[in-house]
Amino acid sequence: MELRTLAGAAFVDFFHCRRRECLENTQRVIELARTVDDPHGELLTPWGAAVAELATGHLDAARHHVSEGMTVAERIRDRYWLCGTLVSRDYVFRVQGDWQTVRESIDQGLELLPMETRLLSVRVSLEYDVGDFEQGEAYLERYLEAMRSVPAGPSAEHGFIAGMIPLVGRITDSPYRSGIIESAAQTVFSSALATPLVPAHTRAGVAMLTVERGGVAAAQEQYASLKPLQGGMLPQFLITIDRLWASWPTPWST
Hints:
This protein has 14 helices and 2 strands; from the N terminus they run H-H-H-H-H-H-H-H-H-H-H-H-H-E-E-H. Helix 1 runs antiparallel to helix 2, helix 1 crosses helix 4 and helix 12 packs antiparallel against helix 13. 46% of the residues are buried.
């Protein structure tokens, strides 16, 4: 019971961007896992712990968490949890610049869940980052199809796209799909159930859109909302909150 409770707390800490608390609860779960057999409980912790370690540059620690998580995920063979663990492992491979391994890992997950938006968003970012715009566009359209198939709400499906599209626009020097950004942002911001992690991705995208339009004051409002999350990270984009603040008022301009 203690393991499940602490694992659940670490999972909540992850979605509330509480890096220190997430790592503390994860460490206790690791200790308890040596004495009890509860793989589902264990799997609640590696995702957040890996992101928390990456946010502070502890690559070896992040690599360890995802390695342990993959061992447990492959043991229980649950598609959702295996795909989620693959996503966290992909964060580590992307930091290392191992693009081919990320692609292979995402392909593995998409064979299990073809419309898994967490995996698709990582693939979109990767393909545009390496300059394969055709593949990036194909995966972006697939993501949008998956997003439209789920009910509107403060979910990752809607929250991530608002940040993803401005990033794509900056890379390709093409117009932003402002209608999609604004619709997704409205969906996320209008919900009282949104946890901080998802709206943080959304706010980053809205800020970029408003800067593009010359609305510095409106962008500043979004940045102010991100300030309590400094020290954390936007895992789907592998960008730290501190980097956003350092680049104000023109994010990703350097």
